Amino acid sequence: MIETERLIIDRLTPDDLSWLVEMRSPDAVNRYLGGPTMQNLEALTKRLEFYLDCYERLGFGFCAMTLKSTGERIGTSGLVPLEDSGEIEIGYNLSEKFWRQGFGYECAMAWLKYGFEVAGLERIVAVAHPDNKGSWGIMEKCGMHYEKSGFHYNMDVVFYAITREEFMRPKHDETVIKLM
């Protein structure tokens, strides 16, 4: 679906459930994704079904991220409706060994570009656990701005947003995406 300098970002399939469980199971990863209650097989089965439904209804959703250089899957990212808000959320999560290497920013910029230039969205939001400074640092680097604190995914969150107009201002790095 999307290609960046280092990543191929492509749709998940029902066959990806076991990989999704494995990738999101470590405590360091799941503490920012709703904790253990959101990481069991039943919860992730429902989440994967939600992602697959998003592809059908919206033409986009959460996807697997694969390193071009090795073919290794390193995490997930995408655009999905934020629960009970009516807004579209950008999200990303990486296996811990890929943290702090710029992949979060790279995929976030590609998804923002996709959301505004391809999907025609006017506004995109993001939420993160208040302790997840890495995630909200990515949001800020992408030009998103803090709006409020809230409660989503069974946890307190910080809530960020960006509009198409803000994103299109000529201050962002060029992130090349290709539709596949």
SSE topology:
Elements: E1 2-3, E2 7-11, H1 17-24, H2 27-30, H3 41-58, E3 62-67, E4 73-81, E5 88-94, H4 103-118, E6 123-128, H5 133-141, E7 145-152, E8 155-163, H6 164-168
Antiparallel strand pairs: 1-2, 2-3, 3-4, 4-5, 6-8, 7-8
Overview of this structure, please?
The chain is an alpha+beta fold. 33% of the residues lie in helices and 29% in strands. The chain has a single domain, classed as Aminopeptidase (3-Layer(aba) Sandwich), CATH 3.40.630. The chain contains six helices and eight strands, in the order E-E-H-H-H-E-E-E-H-E-H-E-E-H. The strands form two sheets. A five-stranded antiparallel beta sheet has the order 1-2-3-4-5, sandwiched between helices. Strands 6-8-7 form a three-stranded antiparallel beta sheet. Strand 4 and strand 5 form a beta hairpin. The mean pLDDT is 87.
Number of DSSP helical runs: 6
Task: Tell me the fraction of residues in β-strands, as a range.
Answer: 25-35%
Radius of gyration over C-alpha positions, nearest whole angstrom: 15 Å
The main pleated sheet reads as:
5 strands, antiparallel
Strand order across the largest sheet: 1-2-3-4-5
Global structural class? alpha+beta
Count of individual domains: 1
Query: Based on DSSP secondary structure assignment, what is the total number of beta strands?
Result: 8
Q: Percentage of helical residues?
A: 25-40%
Order of helices and strands: EEHHHEEEHEHEEH
The separation of the N and C termini measures 5 Å
Identify low-pLDDT runs: none
CATH topology assignment: Aminopeptidase
List its traits.
three-stranded antiparallel sheet, globular, alpha+beta, 8 strands, 33% helix, five-stranded antiparallel sheet, 180 residues
